[in-house]
Each structure stands twice: as C-alpha cells, then as structure tokens.
Amino acid sequence: MSIKRIGLLTSGGDAPGMNAAIRAITLKCINAGWDVIGIEAGYNGLFSLSSRPLTHQDVDNIIQRGGTILKTARCQTLKEDNGSELAAQQLDKLAIDALIVIGGDGSFRGATQINKFWPKPIIGIPGTIDNDINGTDQTIGFWTAIETALSCIDKIRDTADAFERIFVVEVMGRDCGFIAMESGIACAAEQIICKEIIENESDFLSKLYSSIQHAVTWQQTQSYVIVVAENALSISAQTLAQNIQSNTGVDTKSAILGYVQRGGAPVAMDRVLATQLGIAAVDALVQGKSGVMIGTLNNTLVEIPLADTGLKNTANQALIKRLKQFNFDLTD
Ligand SMILES: Nc1ncnc2c1ncn2[C@@H]1O[C@H](COP(=O)(O)OP(=O)(O)OP(=O)(O)O)[C@@H](O)[C@H]1O
Ligand SMILES: O=P(O)(O)OC[C@H]1O[C@](O)(CO)[C@@H](O)[C@@H]1O
Which reaction does it catalyse (predicted)? Predict the structure, then answer.
C-alpha cells in the first residue's frame, strides 16, 4: 500500500518534548511528499473528527515548547465496547493511510486495539514523564520532569536546612518509581520511597522512622529530605509527614510537586530523543513496518511490538538494583 496521508496524535499525559517529535515527524513526512494530519486531543479527535493538516509553519519554533500543539486527552470512548471499531471507521473517514501515536503504554494499548479493526500501519513513540514503558530506556519528557523536580527539591532543601526540618516531597510517576529514583539520587535525598522497594508497608515504615531517628540523633543531620513516588504508600505524603513527626519528634512538612513536573521547556536530552524517535518512526513506515513502538536501548534505536510495551517486572528489579547502589543510609 502506498502511503500518502499520515495521521499523528499525542495521547495520555502531555510530556515535554512531544512538540519536538511532532516537528520531526512533520518535516520528515513533508520531505517524503506525504501529508501530515494532526488529530487533536488524543483519540478524542478521532471520534469528533477534529483534525488539521500540519505544515512547515505549524512546526516552526515549537521545539522548545512544553505541552503539545496537538493537545492531548484520556479518551473514554476508545475503551468502550465498540470504541476501537469506531475509531477504525473514523480513521478511514479521514482517509488516513498510516497512524503515529505519541503517548504512554495506555495509548499503545489503544493503538493495538484499533489495529485489530484497521489493518494499516501504526507506529508508537514513547512520550510520558513516567518512563514506565517496556522496551525503551527513556521516554520523551522523563529527563525534563526530573530536572523540574530536582530544581524544586533543591529549593525545598534550602528551607529544610534553615529550619532543620524533615521534608516529605511527593513526585509523579503514576505507579512507577523512576522519577522518584532519579530526582532523589540527584538531590541527595536521605530516603527515596518507591512502591517497587516495599514488601510490607508497616515494616517498611517502622524501619523508616528508626532510620530517621538514627540520622537526626547520631549523625546530627541538619535537614532530611524524603522523596516519595505518588502511590508508593497507602497513606498520603501529608499523613506520612505527620506520622514521622509523631514518631521522631522532629518538625516535618510535606510538599506535593504535582503538575509542575509535566510542564516547561524540554531539556536537550528530550528534544534530541524526540527528534531521533520522530525521524525513526517515519523511516519505519517507509520500510513497511507496523504495530511497533520505536525506542532506544543502550543508545540504539529498537522496535518493540506495541502489545509488549507494558512495564515488566524486570523494570522493578533494575530500579531496586539502582537504588541499592546509591543508598547511603548507614542503618540499612
Ligand atoms: N485497554 C485499552 N483499550 C483501549 N484504549 C485504551 C486502553 N488503555 C488505554 N487506552 C486509551 O489510551 C489513552 C491513554 O492511556 P493512559 O491514560 O493510560 O495514558 P498513557 O498513554 O499511558 O500516558 P501517561 O503515561 O502519560 O499517562 C486512554 O485514555 C484510552 O483512550
Ligand atoms: O493529568 P491526569 O489525568 O491527572 O494524570 C496524572 C498522571 O499523569 C502523569 O503525569 C503521566 O502519566 C502521571 O505521573 C500522573 O499520575
């Protein structure tokens, strides 16, 4: 089948660098003589047929912008019973010959479903701050989110130090600890808490309280920063802070960094990664590939079946190993 019109959408949480990928895909397709149709607000744009052709001008001066010029969304309709069949019909209405989806593993689950009713090429590009995708070392947006988290935690460290307080800082990641781990290592957090390392929560917390007590009593720690991944514990960051204070007697505050981690100009790493993956996605279409995500493993471009992009247990093992490497907690 000869490709003339590419559909392009961003889906799931926006991630800094998505615009860089949109730019690379658009320019590469235009060079190949293909039209690029930007589908707006993720899969929602398919159902509402909200789309527009993307031109050189549309992708000028966007590489440094956070968010996504195509908008994004979480689309309930696609998950419903006839959702993927309907999506396939909508793609035909738009006369799309091939689809590129920039998003997370959920977006790729959606793409896999659509492919069952729409037997045309679909290529995925990993775009999520969480880095929770199997088959790629990095996702677009991950390093920018870490830089953002890091600059916030460094500021929290200043006030924690001035008051000799303990701080519990919650970072994003959905159910996965990669943002907590990397930002925690980079800000020299005294503790990094991720779901992956907790076998029994109450044992874990008892150990945490005694570890903090030891640090403030014997190491005369001036400030103590705990980076916790969202959803790592059954209690909120605020409750954890209250519990630490009542167990240790040390003034303890909490801060939830939240959506600030999704915004801002992408760091160089994300711009370069997004550009590289965007070009490779179009190359994959030229080569007749379909049903794969383009990722990077050990700095090499790889293709992973979209159906295999859900996080595997090996990611947990890798995270645990890395955390142990960087753990300076002397009581451990
Ligand atoms: N099992 C599924 N079947 C059909 N569509 C799905 C499925 N899972 C997810 N999707 C579609 O993909 C969209 C995005 O998925 P999700 O909300 O999980 O985000 P994501 O792509 O994993 O990105 P992020 O990691 O940034 O949250 C969903 O809103 C839905 O439209
Ligand atoms: O924007 P929403 O739908 O509230 O999603 C928040 C989730 O999206 C992410 O920012 C990206 O997946 C997660 O870290 C977070 O749990």
Answer: beta-D-fructose 6-phosphate + ATP = beta-D-fructose 1,6-bisphosphate + ADP + H(+)
In the predicted structure, residue 1 carries a pLDDT above the cut 70:
no
26 found inside a domain: yes
Q: Where are the alpha helices (DSSP H) in 164-258?
A: 178-186, 201-218, 237-248
* Catalytic-labelled residue, pool 130, 137, 158, 251: 130
Task: CATH number of the domain at 23, please.
Answer: 3.40.50.450
ipTM of model: 0.99
Q: Angle, to 10 degrees, between the axis of helix 201-218 and the axis of helix 237-248?
A: 50
Residue nearest atom 3 in ligand 2 by C-alpha distance = 13
Question: Which ligand is closest to the CA of 14, given by its number?
Answer: 1
pLDDT > 70 fraction of the chain, expressed in percent and rounded: 98
131 close to ligand 2 (CB < 6 Angstrom): no
State which of 14, 107, 132, 174 you would mutate to test the pocket of ligand 2, scoring each by most atoms of that ligand within 8 A of its C-beta.
174
Type of residue found at 7: G
Kindly state whether residue 197 falls inside one of the protein's structural domains: yes
- Residue 79, classified by CB atoms within 10 Å of its CB into exposed (0-12), middle (13-18) or buried (19+), is middle
Instruction: Based on the fold, state whether residues 125 and 272 are members of the same structural domain.
Output: yes
Q: Closest ligand 2 atom, CA of 74? A: 3
Q: Residue 201 belongs to a domain with what CATH number?
A: 3.40.50.460
The tens digit of pLDDT for each residue in 254-270 reads 999 999 999 999 999 99
Distance (angstroms) between ligand 1 centre and the Cα of 277 equals 20
Does the annotation count 130 as an active-site position?
A: yes
> Is 45 close to ligand 1, i.e. is its CB under 6 Å away?
no
Cα-based distances in Å from 88 to 39, 52, 73, 289: 14, 18, 18, 19
Residue 165 belongs to domain spanning? 143-262
For residues 78 and 184, state if they share a domain.
no
Cα gap 4→58, rounded to integer Å: 19
Domain total of the chain: 2
